[in-house]
Each structure stands twice: as C-alpha cells, then as structure tokens.
Amino acid sequence: MKSWNDRKFTIINAGVLGLISLVTLFPLYYVFVVSFTHPDEYLAKGFVLLPQHWSLISYRYILATDTFVKAIGISGFLAIVGTLLSLVVTSSFSYTLSRRRFMGRKWLLLLVLLTTLFQPGIIPNYLLVRELGMINSVWSLIVPVLSSGWYVLLMKGFYDSIPSELEEAAAIDGCNDMGVWLRVILPLSLPAMAAFGLFFAVAYWNTFFNAILYINDHQRWPMQVILQNMLIESTTSTGAGAAEVSAEMQIPSETIKMAAVVVATVPIILVYPFLQKHFAKGAMVGSVKE
C-alpha cells in the first residue's frame, strides 16, 4: 500500500503533467475549433472556444482555390515520392557500409562523417542545384536532401546488429547480394524503415526554406510556402484577388487561415498510427547491439 508521501507525489505529478498537456493541446484545439466556426459567429464574438454553429465554409473556400489545391498535390508528391527514394538511398547505402568485406568502406565512412560535421552552406547548395538544371523543378526539393550523414550512420548501426550468419545462410541457398538485401535484410528492417520513413515524410511535407530558394514559380510552391503567404498576407492564394473574394463572401481571414493550418497538419498526423507498432522499436535504431 502506498504511503501518503507516495500518493501526494502521484497527485502532484499528475497535476503538473495534466497542466502541461493542457497548455500543449489548447493551441491545437483552438485552431481546430476556429476553423469549423461559422463566419458570422466568429465575426460577432472574435474569440470562440465552443462554437454554437459549426461550418465547413472555410474548408470549402480553401479547397476551391486552385493555388492551394496544387500546393497540396505538390506536398503530397514530395512526401510520397521523396520518402520512398530517401528510404531506398539511405537503406542501400547504409547496408553497403555495414558490410566489412566492402572495399573502401572506411574512406566512405569518413566522408559520411565529415558531412555531419561540415555543411557547404546556402550559396554552394544553390549553385549546385542551378548547375544541375533543377531550378523551378520539384526535384530540387528532393534530390539535394535524399539522405543525410546522420541517418546513414544510424541505419548502419542497425544493420551492424543483424547477425552475418543470416546472410551466409541466404548465400548458401543461392541468393546473391541483391537477393540477400531484398529477401532477408529489408524484411528485418521494417522498424527502422518505419522510423526513418516518418522522419523523411515529415521533412518533405514541411518543405519550406528550400522551396523559397529554388522555386520561383508560385504555381510550383509546396503547401507550406502557400500557407506562409496566407498567414502573412491574410489570403488563401498568392494574389490579392482571393482576399477580395473572401471579403465578398464575408469569410474572416482567421477562420480561413486556421482551416489551412488544419489541412496542412492533419494528413501527416494520420500517418503515425499506421507506423506506431514499428516506430517505438525503430526509434532505438543503432543504439543497442546484440
């Protein structure tokens, strides 16, 4: 049976954690509620915690805006295609570096380590993208960030923990190096793939700074750049025409912006439950060796 001091500590601990959770979740709740608040009610009150009249007007408006819809498509392309390519590049490179029989392994590891210590900077990166002819191309948001030295080293640590006897057994059964990787290593790598896949997907979905650097055509901007313009200019597009339409429809800019934030946030949140069973184990990738 717990003593009074233990019960008091539990009560205080629960209260503090509950308060922290409330402070953390309240902004998310407010954004969600305002996005569904009827424009007339929001204009009348200005601050709404529990709306009496729920509405989808703000969502219908932003989804009817061509620029925003295109931006969602571009961000979705980055998150799906970019994540798949990054997983292929990172996992294959990491697996290669984890094999001791690979010639030049130590030199490559040194080069990978150097990339984690020294960064070329914005201007060299821009010049590289320009020389590759990827300015104003969606590939400029994928190719330069396909992987990172830190992720390669982490996944390499995971592959180091896989017993080499499994590969030897697969080789005896007739698998070549590619067959070993596809049939043996990748199935064992699902926790690591889930963890890194979530990291890559979030990074691509939230692409912002590189888009400002490399994309000059606003029709090719990802959603985060469009959202930034909406938050600053109080519009749902890159031009002033949308603001005029909003005024004619009497839709407050705040409800429109909150709806845009929800649309930009919810899709990536919904990915997590599907990866949850693998994520806890994958988050410890490379930290423990058998």
TrEMBL record:
<dbReference type="Pfam" id="PF00528">
    <property type="entry name" value="BPD_transp_1"/>
</dbReference>
<feature type="transmembrane region" description="Helical">
    <location>
        <begin position="12"/>
        <end position="32"/>
    </location>
</feature>
<dbReference type="InterPro" id="IPR000515">
    <property type="entry name" value="MetI-like"/>
</dbReference>
<keyword id="KW-0472">Membrane</keyword>
<feature type="transmembrane region" description="Helical">
    <location>
        <begin position="180"/>
        <end position="205"/>
    </location>
</feature>
<keyword id="KW-1003">Cell membrane</keyword>
<keyword id="KW-0812">Transmembrane</keyword>
<feature type="transmembrane region" description="Helical">
    <location>
        <begin position="71"/>
        <end position="95"/>
    </location>
</feature>
<keyword id="KW-0813">Transport</keyword>
<comment type="similarity">
    <text>Belongs to the binding-protein-dependent transport system permease family.</text>
</comment>
<dbReference type="InterPro" id="IPR035906">
    <property type="entry name" value="MetI-like_sf"/>
</dbReference>
<feature type="transmembrane region" description="Helical">
    <location>
        <begin position="107"/>
        <end position="127"/>
    </location>
</feature>
<feature type="transmembrane region" description="Helical">
    <location>
        <begin position="256"/>
        <end position="275"/>
    </location>
</feature>
<keyword id="KW-1133">Transmembrane helix</keyword>
<feature type="transmembrane region" description="Helical">
    <location>
        <begin position="139"/>
        <end position="159"/>
    </location>
</feature>
<protein>
    <submittedName>
        <fullName>Carbohydrate ABC transporter permease</fullName>
    </submittedName>
</protein>
<feature type="domain" description="ABC transmembrane type-1">
    <location>
        <begin position="72"/>
        <end position="275"/>
    </location>
</feature>
